[in-house]
Amino acid sequence: MNPSLAQRVDILFRALHSPAEGEPTTEFVAAALRDRGVETTAADLSAIRAGTDGAPSARLLAALAEHFDQPPWFLSDSETSQRVVDTYVQLDLLRALREAGVRRVRLRGRPAASDRQALIEALRARQRPGPEA
C-alpha cells in the first residue's frame, strides 16, 4: 500500500481523536491552524483530504501534521517511503480498533506492517454483516 497525500490527511482526521470527541471537522482544524499563523480554510483542507488540491504548501502540510501530533514528513515524504507506509498502517490500525470498540490492546514484539494490515482486515471482516440464514 502506498497511501496518497489525500489518504494520509484523511487518516489523520479519522484516527487521531478521542472516542468521546469524535472526528474533528475541517472547520475546527482550519481555525486551529489559523491560530498558529497558517492561513487556510475548511474548504482548503477538504480539498486536500479529497485529493482535489494538487499543490498544498509545505508550510500548510507541516502545520497540519503537527496539529495531529505527527511528524511533518508524514505528509511531505513520498507515498512510497517506508516510514510513511508504516505510520499510515499504524494509524489505520488505531482507527479500526476504535471502530471495533476495542479499548485496550497489547501487541507483543514488533509487529510488521503486514501483521498490522492482517489485523485490520480481520477486524473489518468481523464488523461486516454475515450472510442471512
TrEMBL record:
It comes from the Bacteria. GO terms for molecular function: DNA binding. This is Uncharacterized protein. It comes from Nocardia uniformis. The lineage of its organism: Bacteria, Bacillati, Actinomycetota, Actinomycetes, Mycobacteriales.
